[in-house]
Amino acid sequence: MLDPKASAHGNLASSRIDLQLIANRVEPGTKVLDIGCGDGVLLDLLVTDRQVDARGLELSQKGVNACVARGLSVVQGNADTDLSYYPDNGFDTVILSQTLQATQKPLEVLSEMARIGERLIVSIPNFGHWRVRLDLLLNGRMPVTGALAASWYETANIHLCTLRDFTDLVDQIGLRVESCITLSKGRARELSGKPRARDNLLAQQGVFVLRRG
Amino acid sequence: MSQPVSEAPTKTDLGETVLFKGAALKLDCGAALQDVEIAFRTYGQLNAEKSNAILICHALTMDQHVASENPLSGKPGWWIDLIGAGKVIDTDRYFVICSNVIGGCAGSTGPQSQKPDGSGPYGTDFPVLTIGDMVRAQALLVDHFGIDSLFCVLGGSMGGMQTLEWAASHPERVFSAVPIAASTRHSSQNIAFHEVGRQAIIADPHYLGGKYYETDERPRKGLGVARMAAHITYLSETTLQQKFGRNLQDREAVSYGFDADFQIESYLRHQGMTFVERFDANSYLYITRAMDYFDIAADHGGNLAAAFEGTKTRFCVVSFTSDWLFPTSESVQTVRALNAAGANVSFVEIESDKGHDAFLLDEPEMHATLDGFLKSAAQARGLPIKQTEGQDA
User: Fold this and answer.
1) Nearest CB to A71: which of B339, B340, B372?
2) By CB atoms within 10 Å of each CB, which of A72, A76, B188, B334 scores lowest?
C-alpha cells in the first residue's frame, strides 16, 4: 500500500488484501495464469478455494521453487520476455498482481496478457494517492512508502503510475474496464466502471478486471 | 506388429527378467528385435486400480537397481536417497518399476545377448537403437504388468530423455512426467563428447570390430578413456577445483613424466578402470548413439510444441545451475514448448555446484520439489495417502 506510515512488514491479510479480492473474481473451475506469482499465495487460494486450474510464472527462482514444493504448477520466467511463448487464448483469466510497475514494458506485457486470455485481472499501487502527492509536494523527494519501501535508485518498481494513467493505457490497448475495486486503508470499494478523479486521489491500490474489445 | 507375448518373469542374479517371445519389437532403424528380454526391479505394491505405478528411467551407465543393492557390485541402489519406504518416492504408496534399457548390459537384450539363431552374441550386428526404441521396450514391460496409465515417469539425464519421449509418444499413458537434467535433443557438444568416447573404444586393439566376446580380452583402455572423458562432463569446474585443485597424488613434486602426478588424473584413471569392470563397450557405443539421435522436435516437423500438443500430462522439469552437459537453457526450451502446447508444467532450477551429477546426489531442494510435485499429482490422480493395511510392501 502507498501509505507512508504503513509497516513495510505488515501481515499478509492487510498488505495483500488485493489477493482475496482477485481470487473472488475468478470463476471456479476455469484456467488461470498468474504472472509474477511470488511464493504462490494467490495460486494456493485459487486452487483450494476456487478449484481453478492455476499456473504461475515467477521471476525469482526462490519463489518458483517454493511454489513447486507446495504442489503448484509454476515456471521460472520473465513477464517481459516469456509471455510470447504462451498460446493465444490459452487461459480464461490472466492475472498480474502488483507486478506491472516492475516490468520493463508495461504496454507490451498487457497486450500479451490480452492475447493469452480474454479476461485480465490487474492490481496496481496507485501513485496518484493523496499522501504520495503530498509527500512529493511538501518534501520534494520521491515518496518512499510502506509497500514501495525502496529508494528511487534501488527500487524494482520502475514504471509506477496512477489509476488514471493506467486506464489511459488500457484504452490505448483497446481493453475494456469491466470493473474496478479501489482499496484504501484495507477497505475495498467496488466501482462499476473506471475510477474517477476522487478515486484516483483516495485509493491506495486499484484492482481492475479488464476484457478484450 | 502383433504384440509380443510375455513369459512369466524369471528371477536371476540380476533381479527379475521377462522374456517377450514371439513377435518382434520394431525399431526406428527399420530392423526388428526378436525375443526381447527385459531385466527389471520393482518396489512396493501395485494397487488394485493399477494407478500408482512410477516408472524410473535410468541414465547412460545406470541399471535397474535403483533402490536396492546391485547384486554384482554390492553397491546400494543409485537413487536410494530418493526411493524407499517413507521417502520422497514412497514405496509404501507407489509401485516403482525400473528396467535396464535394451542395448544395455545389466540383463536386458543388448549387444552381449545371443542372437536368436544361436550363432553367437550380437556384437555390432545388434541394430542401432533410439531412445524411442528403449521406451517401446519399456512399454512392453508396462503392458506386462497390465498398467494402462503410469502415475509418473521420472528420470535424469538419458532417463529424462526417455521421460520426455514417453510423454511425447505415449501421452495417454503418462499422468505425470519428471525429466531431470535432460533435454528434448542431444546438443552438438554432447554428440562431440560421445564421439570422443566411441572413437577411443573403436581404436582399442582389443575391440576387434566389436567381436571381442569370443576372446579373453576386452577393450578396457578404450572404454576407460571414454569413461574418463565423459566423467569430466558430469562434474563442474567448481567441483574439480574444490575437490582436486592442482593437488599432487602421493608425491611432493611433479615427476617430469606421464604418471598420474595430479590427483585429478589419478581420480579419472580410477573412474575409467572401475567402469570397465561393470560396463560393456558395445553397449556404450549403442546407448551413446541412441542419445545422439534423440531429437523430439525433428520427429514433429521441427516444431517441439507440436510434439506435446493437447497433452494432459503434468510436467515437472528440473535443471541444475552448474550442469553444463544438460544446461538450464535446454530445460528452458522444453518448458517454453510445453507452455506453447498449453501443458501443465512446473520448472525448477536447483542451485548446485555439483554439475550434471547433482541429480544423483542428495540435493534437498530437488527432493522438496519432487515431494511437492508428486503429492499434488497424487491428489489430482485420487491416490490415497497410504495404501490400505496389508498391502504395504
Assistant:
1) B372
2) B188
